[in-house]
Write a structure and sequence with these properties.
Layout (H helix, E strand, L loop, with lengths): L5 E5 L5 E3 L11 E10 L5 E11 L10 E4 L3 E5 L12 E4 L2 E2 L5 E2 L3 E10 L5 E10 L6 H16 L18 E2 L1 H17 L13 H7 L6 E8 L4 H9 L2 H7 L5 E8 L7 E9 L1
Parallel strand pairs: 12-14
Antiparallel strand pairs: 1-2, 1-3, 3-4, 5-6, 6-9, 7-8, 7-10, 10-11, 13-15, 14-15
Helix pairs in contact: 1-4, 2-3
Protein name: Alkaline phosphatase
Organism: Deinococcus koreensis
InterPro entries: CAP_dom, CAP_sf, Ig-like_fold, PKD_dom, PKD_dom_sf
C-alpha cells in the first residue's frame, strides 16, 4: 500500500489495532468477525475486508512448570500452560520471583513455583521440590558425539541393514537452545534417578523442554542413553537401535547434545541428543 495509507483493525472481541501487521490474542472460545479497513492519507476508507475466526477451547485451564537444570544454574518456564487470561504466569524459586531467565543455583533442596491466574480470577499454584547436586560434563565428548552422528549421516547409514552406503544427509547444526534442553534431560536423569523421555522431575516431554528453552520447532525428537563409557559406544548403540537410528537419519536440521557424569547414581553416565526441525 502507499506509504501514507494506514490499516485499522477490529478483532470482534473488543480489541482494535492499527498498522500493516498486528497481533491479537483471543482468550475465550467462540466465533469472531475480524475486520480490516484501508484508509488513504485523507482518512477515507479505500477498501474493507473481513474474516470469520472460530476459536476452539484448549481444554481446562492449568498451569505447567518446567525446570531446566544446568551447571550451577536453573531456568524455569510456564510454557504449555492453558490459560484464558492475559495475566502472565509468575515463576518463583525458593519464594523469590525469577521469571524465565537462568539464575544461579546452590547445591541442596529447592522449591520451584508457577503461579497462574485463572479466568475467574482465582490463582493456581504448581510447586515442585527438587535437589541440585554436583555433576560434571565433557565438551570433547559432546563434540565427538556430534562428529560421529554427522559422519553417519554423510555416509548414508541404513537403519535396516545396519550398513553405510545409502543416501547422504547434510550435517546437523548444534543449537544452544537444544543444548539447554538436552542438558536438562541428562541432569534430570542423573539427579532424579529415572531413565525416561518423560521427566521424573516435572513431567515434561522433549517438546516441552525445547519450548521452555526458547525454540519453537515444527518437529522434535530425542535420544537418551545411560551407562555407556565413550561417545563411540553410545552413537554405535543408537545407530543399531531402530527408533534411535531413525531420529539420527531423519530430516532434522538442528541438534542439541549433553553428557553428564555423576558417579554413585544408577548409571553414572547419561547421554542425550535432541533433534529439531524449524
Amino acid at each position: 500500500m502507499p506509504a501514507d495509507y494506514r490499516v485499522e483493525w477490529t478483532f470482534g472481541d473488543g480489541g482494535a489495532a492499527s498498522g500493516p501487521q498486528v497481533r491479537n490474542t483471543y482468550y475465550r472460545a467462540g466465533s469472531y468477525t475480524m475486520q480490516a479497513r484501508l484508509l488513504d492519507s485523507g482518512g477515507r476508507v479505500v477498501s474493507r475486508a473481513e474474516a470469520k475466526i472460530d476459536v476452539k477451547s484448549g481444554g481446562p485451564e492449568r498451569g505447567a512448570l518446567t525446570i531446566l537444570l544446568g551447571q550451577g544454574q536453573v531456568r524455569l518456564s510456564a510454557v504449555d500452560s492453558v490459560l484464558y487470561t492475559p495475566a502472565a504466569p509468575r515463576l518463583l524459586l525458593d519464594g523469590q520471583e525469577v521469571g524465565e531467565r537462568p539464575v544461579s543455583l546452590n547445591h541442596g533442596t529447592h522449591q520451584a513455583t508457577a503461579l497462574v491466574t485463572l479466568q475467574d480470577g482465582r490463582q493456581q499454584e504448581r510447586r515442585i521440590t527438587f535437589t541440585a547436586a554436583p555433576f560434571s560434563g565433557s565438551v570433547p565428548f559432546e563434540s565427538e558425539v556430534l562428529r560421529l552422528t554427522n559422519r553417519a549421516r554423510a555416509r548414508g547409514w541404513n537403519c535396516a541393514t545396519l550398513r553405510e552406503g545409502g543416501a547422504s544427509l547434510p550435517p546437523l547444526s548444534q543449537s544452544a537452545a537444544l543444548d539447554a534442553a538436552a542438558l536438562a534431560q541428562s541432569a534430570g536423569m542423573a539427579l532424579g534417578g529415572y531413565f525416561d523421555h518423560v521427566s521424573g522431575l516435572d513431567g515434561s516431554t522433549p517438546l516441552r523442554r525445547v519450548l521452555a528453552a526458547g525454540l519453537k520447532p515444527r518437529a522434535v525428537a530425542e535420544n537418551i542413553a545411560a551407562g555407556q563409557e565413550t561417545p563411540a559406544e553410545v552413537v554405535d548403540g543408537w545407530l543399531r537401535s531402530p527408533g534411535h537410528c531413525k531420529n539420527i537419519m531423519s530430516d532434522f536440521g538442528l541438534i542439541g547434545l549433553s553428557f553428564v557424569n555423576r558417579p554413585g547414581t544408577p548409571y553414572g553416565r547419561y547421554w542425550t541428543q535432541v533433534f529439531a526441525r524449524l
